[in-house]
Amino acid sequence: MFRSPGLFSRAWVRRAITAIAVIAVLAVPLGFDEYTNQNLARIGVFAVAVLGLNVVMGYTGQVSLGQIFFVGVGAYVTAYGATHGWNIGVVLVASILIPGVIGLLVALAAARLGGLAIAMLTLALPIVGVPLAKRLSDYTGGSQGLSSAFSSAPEWSGLYNDQWQLYVVLVVGGAVFLLTRNLVRGKYGRAFAIVKSNEAVAASMGISPYRYKVLAFTVASLIGGVSGFLYMAVVQFTSPETLSLGHSVTLLASMVIGGSASIVGSLLGGAYYVLAPQLANHVDPNTTELLQGALLLLVLFLLPGGLVSLPRVIARKLRRNRPTGGADRQQSSSGAPARGRKAVEEAPTMSGIPTGRPE
Amino acid sequence: MTLLELQSVTAFYGPVQVLDGVSLSVPEGGAVGILGANGAGKTTTLRSISGTVRAGGRILYDGADIRGKRPEQVAAMGIAHVPEGRGGFGALTVRENLRIGAYLRRDRKGVESDIEFVLELFPNLRERYKSHASALSGGEQQMLAVGRAFMAKPRLLLLDEASLGLAPSTAMTVYDAIAKLRRESGIAMLVVEQNANLAFRLVDSATVLETGRNVLSGTSAELKGMDEIRRAYLGG
Amino acid sequence: MGQFIQLVVDGLSNGSIYAVLALAIVLVNQATGLINFAQGGMAVFSAYITWLLTEHGLSLILAILLSVLASFVLGALVERLVMRRFERGDPDTAVVVTIGLLTLITGICGWLWTYNNQQFRSLFSLTTVSIFGAAVSIRSIGTFAVIAVIMLFLQALFLGTKFGLALRAVAINPKSAALSGLPVGRLLMAGWGLAAALGAVAGALVAPQLTLTPGMMDTALVYALAAVILGGQSSPVGVVVAAWLIGVVENLAAVYVHFIGYDLKVAVPFILTFVVLVVRPQGLFGRKVVARV
C-alpha cells in the first residue's frame, strides 16, 4: 500500500518502519486485556488458515472447500502429541507434516482432474472428516474431542497465559506469513499466477499445471497444519465439529471477503472469521449464516478484490470524480500507436464482465 | 440496391480506438472484401455489424440503423456471422451444428433440404455427419462454420478470415465452395481476409483498412492492378 | 440373500434421490458450464415452500406442483440477477458465487423457519411389499420410478429437442450461439429454472426421510457431486447410473465392510470416485474432451 516513491523507497527508512512495526506488534500482548488478547490470538490462528487457502485458491486459482480439514488434522495431531508427552518441537513438526502428507496424497489425485473437480473432491474432506474423527476415537477422543493445556505460560516468562499464547501465535504465525509472502512473490508465485490465469499457456511455457497445483495444495495443507497447531495452543480443545463443512465454507468466505491473493487480505480474512459471528450473534444468532452469505455475494459483486482493495477502490473513485478523468481517456485513445491497436484487436469482446478477481 | 452500408463507423476497446471511421457498402447479392494487415480493424468491423462490439457512426441494414442491437437480434434480421476461429460447437455433431444454425427457422422441410444442400456443397461433411465437430480437421470445421451460417438462410453473410490456420490448398477449396454457395444462393457477403489472392476468388470489390480507416477501395480488377496492393497483400 | 436384495433396493432408492439433485447439477452444467454448489440449498428452499403450502392445508401433490413452478421462476431469477454477471468470467469465481448463494439460501431458510427439524409428509406410503424375500417399501419403489421418468425426460430433452440442443450449444459457445440467433439469456434462465424445478422434486423426495432442516441437503449434495464426476458431468443417464451405483455400493459397504459401517459410508462415493477417476479421468460415461490451444 506504500506506493508513493521517494521516502519509502529508501532502504533504511523501510527497515526502520519494519522494526517499529515489529516492536509495536510484540508490545501488543502486554497492553490489552485477556479477552482482547484471546480474540487477537484467534484472529491469528484463522489468518494463518486463510493464508493457506489463499495459496491454493487465491494465488493458484483452485477452489478448495477442504482447508478446514487440514486445520482440524493439525489440531488433532497437536492434541494427541501434547497429551502423550511428546516434545513440543516434535508436536509442531508432526502437526505440520501429517496434514501436508495427506494434502499431497489428495492433491495427487484431485489435480489430475482439473477444473472444478478439485472443488468437488475437497468438499468431501470435511464431510468425511467429521465421522472419521468420531470413529477414530482412540486417537481423537470421539465426539467428546480432546483437550490439552500444553500452551500455558512457562514460569520464567512471567506472562499470563493469554499473553504467552498470543506471543506463540505472533511468532509462529508471523514466520508462516513471512515464508508464504516470499513464496508467492518469488518464482513459484509467478508460476502459480500463470497456472491460475491460463493452464494452456503455463504448459506451453514449460510450467506443469499439475505439478504446481499439487505443490500449492500441499503448501496450503502444511499451512493448515500450522493453523491447527496454533488453534490447539489458543483454544486448547478440538472436536469433530472443528472440521465441519460449515467452518470450511466460512473460511472460504473469509478469504474472498478479506481479499483473494493478498497477504494483508489473509489477515483481514482471519479477523472476519473471528469477529463476524460475534457481531452477528449480537443481532440474532439465527441470522449468522444469512448475513455471511449476503456479505459474501455483496463483496463478489461490488468489491471483487475483497476488503483489502477498499482503499484502492475508494482512491480510484475519488480520482475519477475529478475532471482530469476525461482527459486521460482522450490522451490514450489518440496517442495510441498502431501497434497498440493491433494488440487489442485480438482481445476478447462482448465480455464487459469482470473476471471477479483482480491481479 | 444497397443491403448494408457503414458510414464512418468507430469502435473502441476500452480507451483504445480500433475503428476510426470505416465506411463501405454491400449491394444486395454482392460480395465485398475487407483487406488489411493484422490489427487493421477488419474483425472489429464485422463485430460491430453483428452487435458483438459497440460502435459509433451509422450501420444501415435495409436502410435502418442496426447499431445497438444484440447479436441474436441482428441474426434474426438475416445477418449470419462466421466468426474468427469458426465458432464451432465442439461437443455437438455436424448435424447438430447445422441445426443450431437453423435455430430461428420454423420450416422443418426447408431445413432438411438445406442440410442436404450443405452436404452437397461440402462432401467432407457428409462423411463426418455423425462426428463431433471437435473431431473434424481445420478445413472441415471451417466448412461446417460456413454451412452453419448458411442454415440460417441469411441475406448477408459475414465471413471472418476463413483461411486462418488452413493449408493453402484447403483454403482454396473452402473459398471455391463459398464462391459456389454464393452463385447458387445469391447471399450477399462481406469477407474479411488477409490473403487478398483468396479474397479475389470470391469478391467483386474490396476495401483496404489500415489502423481502423479505409485507405483504398475499388473493384477486384482495379485493386489487383495496383502496385501497393500487389506488394502488401499478394506476395509480389 | 434377503438382506442383500433389501440393501440393493434401498441403495437404488437412496441413489435415486442423489440422482435427482445430480441431474439438476448436470442441467446447469449443460447450460452454463458451471457446477452449482447451491443446488442443494435451493432444493431445501423448495422443500420449505412445499412444506409451508401443506401447512396451509394444501394437498401434498398440489403443494409439490406449486413448489416446482415457484422454483422454476426462482431459479430463473437467480440466474438473471446473480449468476449472469459471473457466467462469462473466471469459472472459479462463479463457483465461489454459488457457494455464497448456498450460504445465503441456507441462512434465509434458517432465519425464516429456524434450524429446528420440521416433519414432512411422504409422497409414497411406507408400507412394504415382499420381493424375492426382501421387504421393499412402496416409497423406495416410488422414488425409483420418479427418477427413472425424470431421467428419460431429460435425456429426451437434451438429445431429442431443439430446446435441449440450444441449451447445449449455449453452454459450449455462448458467443457463437448468439450469432446463430439463440436467445442466450433466456436459455440460461430456462436452464437454471428447470434445474431448480428438479431440485424441488428432489427436496420433496428426501425431506420425509431426513426431516426438513436448512442443512438437509448438504450430504445429498456431496453424493450428487460425486455422481456428477463419476457419471462424466454431461450425460443424464451416466449420472443417474452413477448415483444408483453409489447408493448401492455404500449400502453394501456399510454392512459388509467392517471398517466403514453406517457412520463412514459417506466416504464410499469418494473412494469410488477416486478409484474410477484414476482409471478413467473422464468419468464412467463422459467423453474425453480434447482441448485445443
UniProtKB/TrEMBL annotation, chain B:
Belongs to the ABC transporter superfamily. It comes from Rugosimonospora africana. Keywords: Amino-acid transport, ATP-binding, Nucleotide-binding, Transport. Pfam families: ABC_tran. CDD domains: ABC_TM1139_LivF_branched. InterPro entries: AAA+_ATPase, ABC_transporter-like_ATP-bd, ABC_transporter-like_CS, BCAA_Transport_ATP-bd_LivF, P-loop_NTPase. GO terms for molecular function: ATP binding; ATP hydrolysis activity; branched-chain amino acid transmembrane transporter activity. The keyword Zinc-finger does not apply. Transmembrane segments: none annotated. Residues 4-236 form the ABC transporter domain. One of its GO terms (biological process) is L-amino acid transport. This is ABC transporter ATP-binding protein. SMART domains: AAA. It comes from the Bacteria. The keyword Nucleotidyltransferase does not apply.
Automatic annotation (TrEMBL), chain C:
It comes from the Bacteria. The chain crosses the membrane at residues 12-28, 60-82, 94-114, 145-167, 187-208, 220-247, 259-279. It is found in: Cell membrane. InterPro entries: ABC_transp_permease, BCAA_transport_permease. GO terms for molecular function: transmembrane transporter activity. Keywords: Amino-acid transport, Cell membrane, Membrane, Transmembrane, Transmembrane helix, Transport. GO terms for cellular component: plasma membrane. It holds the Pfam family BPD_transp_2. It is a multi-pass membrane protein. GO terms for biological process: amino acid transport. Belongs to the binding-protein-dependent transport system permease family. LivHM subfamily. This is Branched-chain amino acid ABC transporter permease. It comes from Rugosimonospora africana.
